[in-house]
Amino acid sequence: MANTAVATSTPFVWEGTDRNGKKVKGKSLAKDEKQVRSDLRRQGVVPTRIKKQNKGLFAGGGKITSGDISIFSRQLATMLAAGIPLVQAFEIVGSGHENAAMQKLILAIKSDVEGGSSLAEALSKQPLYFDDLFVNLVESGEQAGALESLLDKIATYKEKTEAIKKKIKKALTYPAAVLVVAFVVTTILLIFVIPSFEDLFEGFGADLPTFTRMVIDLSAFVRAKGIIILLIISALVAAFIYFHKRSRPFRHFLDRMMLKAPIIGPILQKAAIARYSRTLSTMFAAGVPLVEALESVAGATGNIVYETGVMEMRDEVATGQRLQQAMENTDLFPNMVIQMIAVGEESGSLDEMSGKVADFYEADVDDAVDNLSSLLEPLIMAILGVLVGGLVVAMYLPIFKLGAVV
Q1: What pLDDT, in 10s, does the model give residues 86-99?
Q2: Of 269, 275, 287, whose CA–CA distance to 350 is shortest?
Q3: Assign residue 330 a region: left if phi > 0, alpha if psi is -120 to 50, beta otherwise?
Q4: Residues 202, 213: contact at Cβ < 8 Å?
Q5: What is the pLDDT of residues 194-227, one digit of tens each?
C-alpha cells in the first residue's frame, strides 16, 4: 500500500491564508488537487492557488539517512506532545521536508494511517528505514496509550545513537582519508616525478646512493606493474566488501579483531556497551519484557560479537537466569557495568541504571575520540613527512653528493 501511495502521488505547490488571515504557502504530495484542498482545510488553511509542481524538483529525491529518521522522530514527538493530531503532524512534517525522498516516505506512512492502519503497522511496511526496535517501541506506546512519551524516548534514543555513530566515523574516517591521500601523492611522485630525476642522473656518470637507487627501482616497478597492482588492490577491496555484506563468520572475525586492536578497539567496545545500555534502557522503560527486549538490543549494538553475546544472554534469561549472571557469562562487559545492572535488577530500576551506564560510556567515547584525534594528527603528519620527504631526499642525495665533489 505504501509503495502504491508513493508511486501515484503528484507534487503540488499552493498558496492560501491561515486561521489568522495570514498568507502562507508550501508544497504537498497528493493524488490530485482535491486531496490537497482537503488536507489544507484540515490544517486550517484556505487555499487560494494550487498547481502542479515541476517533477524535476522532486525527481531523484535524494537518500534517506539514519539522521533523517532521527530528526523525523524528534519532530513527530514534539508535535504530538503539543497536541497536534497524528495525521496532521505527518502532513506538516512531510510537506515541509527538504528531502523529497523523506517527504514521500512520510506522506506514504500518513496515507496508511489515514487508511486505518496503526502507526506501528504503517512503519513496519518500511523496514529499510524503521527497524524492529523502532516498530516494537511504537507498538508498545500505542497499546499503553502513551505514544507521545514513547516517541520522545525513541527520539532521544535515536539522537544518542546517531551521536555515537558520528563519533566512531570521525575516529575512523580522518586517518583513513589522510592515508589514502598519502598513498595517492606517493604514487604520483613515483610514476611522474622520479622518472624525470632518473633521466637527469644518467648523465652524472657516477654511482647513485643506495637509497636513491632503491627509490628509482621502486618507481620502475610501479610503472611496469602498476596496472596489475591496481587490479589486485581493486579485487581485494571488492572481495572485502562482498564477504563483509554476505558472510556473517567473516564479519564476526573482523569485528572481533577490531575489538582487539590497540587503539581503536577500546573505543569500539565502549560504543557497543553504550548502545547496548541505551537500547536496554529505552526498551525496558517502554514496558517491553526483558527477553523480547534483549532480541532488539542485540541488533542495536552495532557489533556482531556483542550481538551474538546478547542473544546468548537472552536464551539464558529465558530459562530463568538473572541478567547480571548472563552478562558475566559472556565475558564482554566490564565489572562496573555488570554491578550497575545488578543494582538496577535488585532495586527495580533497570531502565534508570542502564541509562546511567549509557550516559557514562557515551561521554567516555566522546573523550576517547577527541584524545585519539589529538594523538593521530601529529602521527599522520609524521607519516606524510616520512613518505613524501623521504622521496624528495632520495632524489636530492645525488645532487648533494655532486656538489660536495665539485
Answers
A1: 888 888 887 767 77
A2: 287
A3: alpha
A4: no
A5: 888 877 777 666 677 888 888 888 888 988 888 8
